[in-house]
Give the backbone structure.
Amino acid sequence: MKLKKIFAAVLAAAALTMTMTACQSNTSSDAASGDQSSNSSEVNSDKKYNIGICQLIEHPALDAATEGFMQALTDKLGDNVEFNKQNAQGESTNCTTICNTFVAGNVDLILANATGALQAAASATNTIPIVGTSITNYAVAMDLDDWANKTSDNITGTSDLAPIDGQEDMLVELFPDVKQVGILYCSAEANSKYQVNLFEQALEADGIAYKEYSVADTNEIQAVVTTAIGECDVLYVPTDNTLANAAETVRNVVVPAKIPVIAGEEGICLGCGVATLSISYYDIGYKAGEMAYDILVNGTKAGDMDIEFAPQFVKEYNADLCTELGITPPEGYVAIGAEG
């Protein structure tokens, strides 16, 4: 059985129902919503919840997850919530400093957006509730051997894992004559390597050759991608924060060479890819906010809550790059930005 059947079963079982709310929020203080959930009537009007947000780095996917999280809590708590949003600029040491500051300030809850932020928050406290988002695999991120889709600690959250075998199917569908696939990722990101391993298994099942190209940081990307395009005819980039933050660098190398990129998520695809099987990061952020509400107001223990997954995945394509590279996606693909 191919991996797609296994993943389909797992993800279907973990599917969640999310509320879609369109709103732009980039403030570090509280923001009131005119259309709050009926649950807000249960909130003690004298209680002000202080939420610390540690986001690993700025790029569209993580930004959308943070926005969804803040909107969910604002919908439910209105003026009763304040956010202290901090960006670590891609540095794990900054994540540590930010999370330690949150703990010293005795925040009510920490949102850890991306794996580096989650690891720093987990090291900083085992008592303050932590809700993660944009985490591919919590067991990998937290180095847990005994895993049953919950941490049994003060941590829960949402995953951004899309069906990796489905992304490989997309590559084969778009490029049936592919000879060798280059897999580009940052070696410092454990969850990127996790996705790479799954993608390689899918390629092996289809008898497609591949080669890994890893970078330690953004300084190596241009040189490594230049090597990859000389040896491969299609590249794959998983959900990887380092590559997401440097998608334009990748684009500037692959597009002149006419080498297409299949991306792990929408933001990377917009930056340098032609197609992706992607989730909505706003949705998983919003769900993380709903989970945070359950912890704060209803007293649910974070470690008792299952990690939640996105309910659906969309085949998307980058219309501009597809046109530039002469690629015509088949039926069933949606241009990024055409919906939502």
Remarks:
- Residues 1-41 have pLDDT under 50 and may be disordered.
